[in-house]
Amino acid sequence: MKLVGRFGTLxxxxxxxxxxxxxxxxxxxxxxxxxxxxxxxxxxxxxxxTKWFHQAFSNGELTGxxxxxxxxxxxxxxxxxxxxxxxxxxxxALRGRALTFAIAALLLPLVVPYISxxxxxxxxxxxxxxxPSLTAVVLGHAVITLPFAILVLLPRLRSLxxxxxxxxxxxxASAFGAFRLITLPLIVPALVSSGIICFVTSFDEFxxxxxxxxxxxxxxxxxxxxxxxxxxxxxxxxxxxxIVIAASLLLVVIAEAGRRWAERRLVGAGAAVQSALAExxxxxxxxx
Amino acid sequence: MPRxxxxxxxxxxxxxxxxxxxxxxxxxxxxxxxxxxxSVGLRTNIPGQPTPFSLADWxxxxxxxxxxxxxxxxxxxxxxxFVSVVTTLAAYPLAYFLSFVARRHRYALLLLLLAPFFTSxxxxxxxxxxxxxxxxxxxxxxxxxHLRPRGNAVSWxxxxxxxxxxxxxxxxxxxxxxxxxxxxxNMDHRLTEAASDLGASRTATFMKVTLPLSLPGVVAGFVFxxxxxxxxxxxxxxxxGPNNQLFGNSIQAFFSDSPDWNYGSVLALTLIVVVLLLMLxxxxxxxxxxxxxxxxxx
Lengths: 288, 298
Known about the structure:
The complex is a heterodimer.
Chain A: H1 6-34, H2 51-57, H3 60-93, H4 96-106, H5 114-127, H6 134-158, H7 162-170, H8 175-186, H9 188-204, H10 207-212, H11 220-227, H12 234-267, H13 269-280, H14 283-286
Chain B: H1 3-14, H2 18-39, H3 56-62, H4 67-101, H5 106-114, H6 121-132, H7 137-144, H8 161-185, H9 189-197, H10 202-230, H11 234-239, H12 247-255, H13 261-282
Helix pairs in contact in B: 2-13, 4-8, 4-10, 8-10, 9-10, 10-13, 12-13
């Protein structure tokens, strides 16, 4: 007997697809209104236009904020992933209490609410007489994304056969040489996953950025927050939003396809599915 | 490889954990210590103000005139608990569908569920504001279908408990479905076969075998909403009215619009402690067991 009967199959199918529609509805709404010929996003629609895209692209403050956020997110992704490799290599060598303690400390940012962390960092800056800066934003984002990098990279490093590394060492490679020639190429898919998760988290982060970014240099979420309340700016926000949505979805599809391809080549399909599950569970905690 | 060199290598590798640890200490632990110092008046952001030790702000928040913030805390926890329960209930059938109905394409469909997450959270909240507001998509559809007189908006649709809960529900459902899906995938399917071979109906198999076995995933999913929602403050900024602001919004206000860093620190530290307590209670259900390597590290 199958676990789900015909009626069950039908209703579960219906439920799932209705839910997908619910999940994508806000995205679809934004994309539709980005091409609607009206100042206000209300029905009925008033005809097709691309003028909001032209207007949005000539809005220097908006495009500046998007570029600024992308630069911050890229720096964060590289920095956090590099720290994640270091932390993972260190964790693999630790045992016993030191390991428990190090893991607890490194994953701590997962359980400190972003709003509390943000005000804590604000206090830290002011205590040491430093003003708000984009460097501070990058540091804040590096801290909150470091656990994601570790959660992606550590299981991947653990899954490698230590014999490969030892063979390289026995054959005369330096410790660094063995890492660069053996380990690094094998964890490229995990590095890419880590980079994407850190980039997306940083690009989207509002709480920490809103407290640490200088007032004249808003990040994209800060600009969104400020301008979503200004009706005159809303069409620009929606137009750029539609592009950001399309780009993000495209990135997800490309990354997933690329990761599957690479995993299949490196470790076989079975392991690919396992690591897909492990990596998919990371954003779980990502988002606050 | 000589033992001596191997030990050295391992010792050297262990030291790699220090720079990331240092970052966490300086940028997470030290700020928490400063929040604690602010909360008892030992530091202040106002130049020249004396900084004697004082529990006045704590007393005010816990027992005194800070009833508004206590109320907001209780309201936050109520909304959080409500959203967590509803989200978990709604997510279970999604995970069940992926694991038992959509056998072949389940990973592609899982990605479909998770994809909206990778788009900006603020954008999605703004989109909900556009959908729900008084001239919004829902109201104008109701008007054009003549279900309501034009211009007469549904009052509870936005700036209400409903809109805040809806946005949080929307955000979290896919992520609750995920741990439940993982548990269902790793379930021993011989058990359900045995149940039906022994004559159990589909309902009985589900109630007596599948559901109990999947409970760890259910609890993990529940925690995945509970923890981040406790500190949420973005959704109420866009779709919440004055009465639907959460505890996180109070903290934000104390550090921006109406600055009182000392009182704000009391609230910020309270939030940290509450989340840590929740983690102590529920944390063991989150099976991110990083200690054990698959190769059975010695």
